[in-house]
Amino acid sequence: MRILGVTETCDLGAVYLALLAEGHEVKVAISEPLARGTLAGLCPQTSDWRAELGWLREAGDQGLILFESVSEGFGAQQDALRADGFQVIGGSAYGDRLENDRYFAQSLLGELGFPRGHVWSFEETSRGVDFIRGRPRRYVLKYSGADHASSDTYVGRAPDGGDVAALLAARASDDTSRVAPFILMDVIDGVEMGVGAYFNGERFLQPACLDWEHKRFFPGDLGELTGEMGTVVTYSGTNSFFERTLQKLEPHLRRHRHVGYVNLNTIVNEDGIWPLEFSCRFGYPGFAILAPLQRASWSELFKLMLEPASAAFPASPGFCVGVVLTTPPFPYSRKQIAEPIGLPVLIDGPLEPRHFHFGEVGLNPSGQLVTSGLYGWTMVVTGEGPTIEQAKAEAYGRVARVTAPNLRYRSDIGERLIARDLREVARLGLLDP
Prior knowledge:
The protein is an alpha+beta fold. The chain has 13 helices and 20 strands. An 8-stranded antiparallel sheet has the order 13-12-9-10-11-14-19-16. A hairpin with a 2-residue loop joins strand 12 and strand 13 (272-279). It is globular.
């Protein structure tokens, strides 16, 4: 196959390296200048993805464009490329809207039978502050649009919402912060869990996955919301939850010819399933943590996603635990904080591509693996096993083999799930018998 990756910061580096190892032709177009050192010396790059469309047409049905992002306009470009005869995986304009327009997504979910009445949308900071004062309680603040980082989301702790109101006012006074539109959501107590599956334009491929993300920077769920510091995933016992959640989106995604991965994050408790947000793209690091459980290679999986008649792919039972290894300036970017790149990344013992998933790294002129990129997402290390405990032990055994200056990671991925959350999800009847 010929695969063209279209990306801003090259989050799917491990996919491109796997495709190259399978013998496919791969080119990656990275639009962010500070990220172009990622995969340097490891994967061919192109400065203009549009200039490569002829190269793809020559490959016929063996040509594929892989979009990574839900940036404004990317989904519409994918729709247009499909209409022009190209094979495209990544998303759609509709998928972009589901992820970026939070109130639109919540309104649709309400129409599909999920809980309503706990989310409010605002265009002006002052109206949000007035709303909190008139209805004091804990709130989650989330911004709409593709240009907001995970750290912009804030989960309030003050029982009267005063911390959220103060944060809104502070951001409004900073003219470098875009503060609208945004939503306020009641804080819902329970277990946070996600469900995801690959959509092929007609239906979701089975099985779906369940995931439990660890979003905050430090162990014990302290610090900034980073996007993800590590995750536990499984393809086992997932059908019941999938049918109650993501499967309800099938007609809408089919109507808009979406092709790509879709994830719905939720809170579950005695009162039901409370959707939080969509990811309508390959999530990082989720794609890497799912990979060891997928018995199909990435190219085989992509072919299934391009075939509307396909319905399933082979997956292993059990769990996979993934740990994100980061270096400064993470969880910020080099646009905000000046930190050096080109620092050595060393792996003791044999490299296992199945479990060492390169992120923002490249080769220096001497052939040494070094840090690169915009954020400091250095790599994801995984372990798998029939239980979370075994998968966790395997993952951290591999983490101990990695050395890089100022390497940071969470040491508690999976612990709360082992201690109580998985039993609570089972008690709520959300796992297959």
